[in-house]
Amino acid sequence: ANRRLRQVMEEPTYPWQVSYLAHAMVAFFFTLFFGGTLLDALVAIPCGMAVKFTVFRMKRLRANAFFTNLLAAALLTCSPLLAIAAGLNVNLDAVIIGGIMLLVPGVAITNVMRDVLSGDFLTAVTRLAEVLIVAMALCTTGCGKEENTENQENNQTEIEHKICLLLNILNTDFDYSNLENIDKLYIPLKYFSLKSYLSSIY
Questions:
Q1: What is the mean pLDDT of residues 31-58?
Q2: Each residue of 141-180: pLDDT tens digit?
Q3: What is the overall mean pLDDT for the chain?
Q4: Do residues 28 and 45 lie in contact, with contact meaning Cβ atoms separated by under 8 Å?
Q5: How many CA atoms lie within 13 A of 56 on its CB side?
Q6: C-alpha to C-alpha distance for 181 and 103, rounded to whole angstroms
Q7: Do residues 53 and 102 lie in contact, with contact meaning Cβ atoms separated by under 8 Å?
Q8: Contact 163, 181 (CB under 8 A)
Q9: What is the C-alpha separation between 172 and 56, in angstroms, rounded?
Q10: By percentage, how much of the chain surpasses pLDDT 70?
Q11: Distances (CA, A) of 191 to 99, 182, 187, 196
């Protein structure tokens, strides 16, 4: 059994180009799945590649799951933030969710339920702890993204100033249609009943 396990571990894996392409496509289609546009999905492609690069490098450094997922989730936000800084109309939520789905521990959650159903509760608790650690790393990045999204919306929201003018005295020699930057013009009702002012009003 150990010999067979070593043989499996020594078997060649997929080329790195295929692995990067797979991560990019997963981020691409998940972004579309969560309501993103084609532009959002294209921006998500570098997010998937950033996740693959980070996970691969951190695995070589033998970093734990928390810091690996924390760094990967932080780096994948660079692509949509740069796109927004460049003036592109990008849905930040859809892009980041599409990329972060690569880090969701779906297999680990499935293994937890399998261990629970088989009665191996000690292993289930251990795997559940790993899942919670990964979730904490993703949530930490998500909180920062949410705050960044609120700041972005506040900066993009323009405060509209409306100028209203109330005329207490109406000058018949002045053409009020020449007034600029006036949203509303209020004229007392009494002037509408006087024929001498009707030409100035209309």
A1: 91
A2: 655 554 555 555 555 444 455 565 556 666 667 666 676 7
A3: 78
A4: yes
A5: 10
A6: 52
A7: no
A8: yes
A9: 79
A10: 70
A11: 65, 20, 7, 9
